[in-house]
Amino acid sequence: MNDRTAELLAAFDAGRIAALARVVSIIEDQRAGHEAVAAHCHPRVGRARRIGLTGPPGAGKSTLTTLLAETYLAQGLRVGIVAVDPTSPFTGGALLGDRVRMEKVALHPGLFIRSMATRGSLGGLAAMTREVCDVLDAFGLDRILVETVGVGQSELDIARLADTSAVILVPESGDAIQTLKAGVMEIADCFVVNKGDRPGADRLCNDIEVMLGLRGGAALAGIPAHHGVDLKAANPKARARAAAARDDAESWTPPVLRTIGATGEGVPAFVTALDRHFAYLERSGALRERRRMRLRERVRDLVERSVRRRLWHDAALTAWLEAELPGLERGESTPQVVAEALLARSVAAGTLTERTP
Amino acid sequence: MSRPIRVLVAKPGLDGHDRGAKVVAAALRDAGMEVIYTGLHQTPEMIATAAVQEDVDVVGLSVLSGAHMTLFPRVRALLAEQGRDDILITGGGIIPAEDMAALEALGVGKLFGPGTPTTDLIDYIRSWFAAREPQGT
């Protein structure tokens, strides 16, 4: 570690915001010294709760993120927001506009907001978002809210990063068939139907609940009888008992909540649901499992990245591959054979075990 | 590996004329920069806070209200308070040439008037960045 990095980390430990911001940049850009910085952060990771918000563009992710932040700040907690927006695949540029919606809380001293561009990542997050969350965690923030880019149906990286993933939908998001599709609907620990005062909100809530029931094998459990009054739902005592039973359960059924971002209606219930989910994670051991999985994936990612770098930065191997191409073109060899031979050569030459800068 | 230049584009003041700021933000994006756009009615405190948190290289302000002699130095002072006087402050709007010169003497970067091609600003930011980056940040 050089002097400048040491100085920076001392300022980071002293709680200086400018130092935190710079550490985030070093990690995001993988600038010189990023290994030392990551090593410094790692032992302190694990205190913060990480909450992911995902959903289609315009569903109200930024607005709900801001409302959650406001609630946590009012509880005296320190909050980090990581807001991800897309990078243009054509120019490499990005317009990161999530701060516009976060103005109301922007000056709160307990809040740190960072915008990230995807820089070519396709899973709804940037390649380094997880690592940036580690930095915010190590800095001592209590809640980390991660807002993905506006997603379609299969950008699911958020589930690998967050302790709790909330999928934000709006009545315009689509019909019952959309809610039956795989992907983003399967990662939700919590569903939020935002813009809940618009027509179609009831139906969307119902559709999601039916879909969840189908998955759990109890398609109609929560749905009132088609004719007449549902006596179970009408009895408040029975309802409270059912809710208590749910709280103790070892399994988790994602709640379907309704919010109105413009007025903040439904946000307290959303906060409660997030707390309940975290309590469930702790109680059931799922939290440890999720975090362990996160570490496993981190190591695997690092290995893959480093293998790729070492292989393709080896001039001899690249030259050998080039020389093989004519034979491939003539059909004398196959890509599989060349790939195996290349791997064998790299092992023999020690390419993979040699430490390259 | 070269990293993208990060720029904060903000529109301080009470008027609602953000067309210029939006055009500049889009042009910088198309030039391959990462632009953090914060929108209208930003106070110098909000601008400096965002610039520090986002660890930007450049702050671009659009000032049409005549308050440039207050706003530019104030943002610069707030950034300096956080040890970030290395951030380039540039921008444009309705600013008389003698005020531009006075602001430059105060440590503000080059400012651009109406009708400037966006490529002038892009070239200016790029060459400033290239001149600074070899020493690291």
Polypeptide structure, described:
- Chain A has a seven-stranded parallel beta sheet with strand order 4-2-5-1-6-7-8, with helices on both faces.
- Chain A contains 14 helices and eight strands.
- In chain A, helix 2 runs antiparallel to helix 5, helix 4 (61-74) crosses helix 11 (267-284) and helix 13 (315-329) packs antiparallel against helix 14.
- Chain A is of the alpha/beta class.
- The two termini of chain A are 15 Å apart.
- The radius of gyration of chain A is 24 Å and the shape is globular.
- Chain A has helices at residues 3-13, 17-29, 34-41, 61-74, 129-139, 157-161, 176-180, 201-216, 231-234, 236-248, 267-284, 286-312, 315-329, 335-349, and strands spanning 49-54, 79-85, 94-96, 111-117, 143-147, 164-169, 190-193, 256-258.
- By secondary structure, chain B is α/β, with parallel strands linked by helices.
- Chain B has a single domain (6-130), classed as 3-Layer(aba) Sandwich (Rossmann fold).
- Helices cover 45% and strands 22% of the residues of chain B.
- In chain B, strands 2-1-3-4-5 form a five-stranded parallel beta sheet, with helices on both faces.
- In chain B, helix 4 links the parallel strand 4 (88-93) and strand 5.
- Chain B is globular and about 40 Å long.
- The relative contact order of chain B is 0.18.
